Amino acid sequence: MNIFPFQAALAASPLPAPLSAPLPAPLLRAQDVSIDYASGAGSVRATHQVSFDVYEGDRFVLLGPSGCGKSTLLKAVGGFVQPTSGGLLLRGRRIVKPGPDRIVVFQEFDQLPPWKTVRQNVMFPLLAGGVKKKEAQARALHWLDKVGLARFADAYPHTLSGGMKARVAIARALAMQPDILLMDEPFAALDALTRRRMQEELQALWEEVGFTMLFVTHSIEEALVVGNRILLLSPHPGRVRAEIDSHRFGLASSGSEAFQAAAQRIHRLLFGDAQPAAPDRESAAGEPAAVAVQA
Ligand SMILES: Nc1ncnc2c1ncn2[C@@H]1O[C@H](COP(=O)(O)OP(=O)(O)O)[C@@H](O)[C@H]1O
Ligand SMILES: [Mg+2]
């Protein structure tokens, strides 16, 4: 069990653990976030009292079946949707609107305006944010090079494959140097082999650049491959079912017995009737905010 690496260090220490563990401040904190949508005369609750902390450098995954509020939570972090109750804090400040410190990469390929070249697509939000043209151009080329698309800077999106379009979207997002990269099923529309390749490239890019990301998926395998921490959500309304540590899994281990066992365990936690193990983390209200399991 190792939600926080620091807790593991404390547990191994011969000294008694202090009452309040010296955790760093989270980059992003979701605190009892409930979100309702207006629906006809009434409202639909999309998420119910969801809490989680994302630390700098995390690859934090929101995992759950369709309708469990993953996209809603990501939109709320993006500042596009406001919580009905609870709060979202970035570096301790409440999120109230979209900002360049949080950039979203969506699943849809049509997120790239087709009349702009690849380079212009990457430059566009930089210019809109007030970056000078020369600097925007340099940054665009730098990030296109990082995702292996330097040769395609002057191509138009319709000439690119799905995987290449996804790379452009990632380059465009990282060129903005956000505090956190928000990804909503960015590879879901890709064929299996391209999807795998993109997961691999994302991992390599993360190792090289070291950004923080919040990644949404409904694929258990993708969550284990991409994430170092996974929040499991159940639907109607979206609630936290468990939080697991998945840092030791990656593409290299995806065929292993341990990986398969972790995947089965997640499946049971998401879809089984059995209640997860004892609460490990308490919310401010004293209710279990998340349950940790050894994946
Ligand atoms: N704009 C909306 N208006 C009304 N209900 C919505 C809206 N968006 C999502 N919902 C509802 O909120 C719940 C969570 O949706 P969503 O966040 O899209 O889940 P997920 O991304 O996990 O599939 C679902 O029941 C969905 O029908
Ligand atoms: Mg969704």
Automatic annotation (TrEMBL):
InterPro entries xrefs: AAA+_ATPase, ABC_transporter-like_ATP-bd, ABC_transporter-like_CS, ABC_transporter_ATP-bind, P-loop_NTPase
Keyword check for Nucleotide-binding: yes
Sequence ranges assigned to domain ABC transporter in this UniProt record: 28-260
Gene3D superfamilies per record: P-loop containing nucleotide triphosphate hydrolases
Superkingdom, taxonomy of origin: Bacteria
Any one GO MF annotation of this record: ATP binding
Alphabetically ordered keywords of this record: ATP-binding, Cell membrane, Membrane, Nucleotide-binding, Transport
Pfam families: ABC_tran
Protein family (similarity comment): Belongs to the ABC transporter superfamily.
Name the record gives this protein: ABC transporter ATP-binding protein
Organism: Massilia norwichensis
